[in-house]
Design brief:
The protein has a domain of 109 residues: Winged helix-like DNA-binding domain superfamily/Winged helix DNA-binding domain (Arc Repressor Mutant, subunit A, Orthogonal Bundle), CATH 1.10.10.10. 60% of the residues lie in helices and 7% in strands. Helix 1 packs across helix 5, helix 2 packs across helix 5 and helix 3 packs across helix 4.
């Protein structure tokens, strides 16, 4: 018998937490590492699904974000996507050369430009959204909305605590 997870979804009452990779560590450390593992696995699956659209996960996140909120300055994109400004800037320049985004003068700050989707970029937004929704729905199968809300509340508390530590 293999040591992989069963094809059957498990409920919170039947989960075997020892099957997680860091079961021997303190619970708080397990939570941090397992949250990171879930994020990495989500991004890995997204990369697999997005290859059909000739887009990687970093480009997909920008296309998806811009399709929802409209043109953004490079500073705003870097901040909202939690990336370094230089990394976002070079990625946006490559996306511009591929015809996915276009730069326009930023009406709020004449010294900067806003990045917005071109028609080609807009055409990719829907299949990207659909692929990511499929992965998210599969990932959350058997997980109730209250469980998601509780997990988000825990993660928010942890972020708040980390921010408070940084202030001291």
């Amino acid at each position: 018998m293999s040591n992989t997870m069963s094809d059957q979804p498990e409920t919170s009452n039947t989960l075997d937490l020892a099957r997680l990779p860091w079961s021997g560590l303190p619970a708080g450390m397990q939570l941090i590492l397992n949250a990171d593992l879930v994020g990495k696995e989500f991004r890995r699956r997204a990369r697999q699904r997005l290859t059909d659209h000739d887009v990687n996960d970093r480009r997909a996140s920008i296309i998806s974000f811009l399709s929802q909120v409209g043109p953004q300055s490079i500073n705003d994109l870097a901040q909202k996507l939690e990336q370094h400004k230089a990394a976002i800037s070079s990625l946006l320049i490559r996306m511009e050369s591929d015809g996915l985004i276009e730069f326009t003068p930023n009406p709020e700050d004449k010294r900067s430009k806003s990045a917005g989707l071109t028609e080609k970029g807009k055409l990719l937004a829907e299949p990207i959204r659909d692929a990511l929704l499929d992965i998210r729905h599969g990932m959350l199968e058997g997980v109730g909305e209250a469980d998601v809300d509780h997990a988000n509340a825990i993660l928010l508390r942890m972020l708040s605590n980390l921010n408070r530590l940084a202030e001291n």
